[in-house]
Amino acid sequence: MPSQTELLFDLGLEKSIVGVTKFCVHPSEALKTKTIVGGTKDVKYDRIKALQPDIILCNKEENTKEIVETLSEIAPVHVSDIFDLQDALELIQQYGSIFSVEEKATVLVNEILVARDNFQASVKNKTGKKVAYFIWRKPWMVAGKNTFIDFLLKENKFENVIENKRYPVITLSDLQKIPDLDFIFLSSEPYPFQQKHIEEIQSELPSVKIILVDGEYFSWYGSRLKYAYTYFTELQLENGLK
Q1: CB burial class (10 A; 0-12, 13-18, 19+) of residue 79?
Q2: How far apart are alpha carbons 41 and 172 in whole angstroms?
Q3: Model pTM?
Q4: Is the distance from CB of 85 to CB of 114 less than 8 angstroms?
Q5: Mind listing the pLDDT tens digit for each residue in 65-103?
Q6: Are residues 160 and 143 in contact, defined by beta-carbon separation less than 8 angstroms?
Q7: CA within 13 Å, CB half, 189
């Protein structure tokens, strides 16, 4: 998984990694030096089996129960399930324990907490703005409640207007019915939204400010969190969100 791969590299475990998904783009050498074992849904079981791993790292949101069960026939499987910052920090500590890098894990956790504390101090007097966070087009899909994205929106003092859980399909007319919608965020992943999509949505919702945001900082839950709060500060300053 992308978040886990970056985390493992940052914990100094590069030499222990034998396989990654095709979405593990950080750090860049991951895709260049490690065997690609498919995607999060299209898993190449034969490749994984040939690598003879000691442990396989999965994520409940990305990998189906069937995938996890099949992988467990190859090697022990660790499944992460992340909803908020506490879950993310616990995962880092778990990896520290599992892979005997406890000190590095603790340092990373403390760095994330310091970055969070600094950010929270900067937004403590901020009034909440209503936001819809888009992750897909055709059909339009958004991040709802009970997601890590929703948690990070709350960290920014944003009110997620989507009441449904997980990732519902919506229409633009659904958003037209929401009073006082302040912002629409178009994520860079998993769908690569661009300026042309701002124009497409703006024609239907002319009074809402639409912003392209870096989806990695709003959805990755590993060591990228160390930089996420700096990104949130810059995002708010650049777009007048404070």
Answers
A1: middle
A2: 28
A3: 0.93
A4: no
A5: 999 999 999 999 999 999 999 999 999 999 999 999 999
A6: yes
A7: 11
